[in-house]
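Running this now, will post back.
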Amino acid sequence: MGTPEGFDWVWTMTLGETTDSGSSPEPAPELKPHMQSLYMAACARPARDEALEAAIVDLLRFLDGASSRTHDNCWVVSNFIMPGDDHWEEDWSELPERYVDLLGIMGHELWQAATDPEWAEQFGGTPKQILELISKNPDSE
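Update: finished.
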């Protein structure tokens, strides 16, 4: 189960990293509660699909806004998710496959959504594309 202390540790580690542009990330203050909701939902055991999906959708809707789809916001989300099982209190690779796939896309592709949207779109990594994946019936994939 995730704890606020566990979230704060991963958040602080992520903000302490250097971005691909060589600077420290400065995400919007509004990003942190979205990330905490995602972390807590992904670390809940047993997994609660509805809460996890709601947290992912909420975060992606935030990032899909023109003013919040910044390099630092997208970079922080990707790098927060990327280490997943290495730094999180629970291994998100144990979640249902659908959520492992969504978090994997967010961790690997989302960081380019602001600086190179054409690249991100080519690999299905824009917030809008990931939201479209969520709206699909998992049985039809």
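The chain has seven helices and no strands. More later if anyone needs it.
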